[in-house]
Amino acid sequence: MNTIKGFTKEEVRVLAERAQAAKENNQKLSAVFEGFAKDYGRAKGSVRNFYYDFIKMCARDEALSSAFFKTPPSANKIRSFDEGETRFLVRKILIGKKLNKSVRRTIIELSGGDEKLMLRYQNKYRNVVKNQRGLIREIADELGMEEDALVSGRNQKVPDITLKQLKTSINSLVEGIARAAREEKQALSERNRILEAENAVLREVLRNRISTERSFSPPTNEAGKKIIN
Questions:
Q1: How many CA atoms lie within 13 A of 100 on its CB side?
Q2: Cβ neighbour number for residue 125 with a 10 Å cutoff
Q3: Residue 120 and residue 172 in one domain
Q4: Both 43 and 90 in a single domain?
Q5: Euclidean distance between CA atoms 56 and 45, whole angstroms
Q6: Which residues pair with 226 in a beta bridge?
Q7: Partners of 4 in the β-ladder
Q8: Predicted structure pTM score
Q9: 93 with 106: CB under 8 angstroms?
């Protein structure tokens, strides 16, 4: 097996070494994931997810674990949410939505920027949205909010009367633009007509002047000099 879940053995070796060194020095794994992602052109989230999946594999396969780690790796056990924590999380996120905050922004604020806690909150909220819609609806009602708009983020159905008003407004706008364009075209045509008439008058005046000047030009002799009486 040359790759493990899309990661080469060399990548796995480097990631394992960096992660073990970070743990020995009481450093955050998030920095390891970020640095590895930058060095190998991968997304930080995919590196993190792979690492935790990989150590689960190592927990089931001693040979695999010993091939990449000096000491068997372990992942912190994820503590389950109790009912009070779940309600607190949902309420905070819905209040955030009421203040026009995204779910992500609210979760970042709640977690204080802690990536593990942020991921925990995010996964829990998704689970609640998927499997506990009743709880979402209940808390949304308590807050006087529209549950569908807050949870799914999908566009609510626009009432027929609103659609009709919107269509009427759009049609009026289009008609107004078309009318203005027609009026502007007529004004330009009229302006062109006036300019053409003025140019015709000017051309006629110019022709008359030239003709008059030629009629009154003094005669000249054979040398081309004017003959003055």
A1: 0
A2: 20
A3: no
A4: no
A5: 17
A6: 220
A7: 7
A8: 0.39
A9: yes
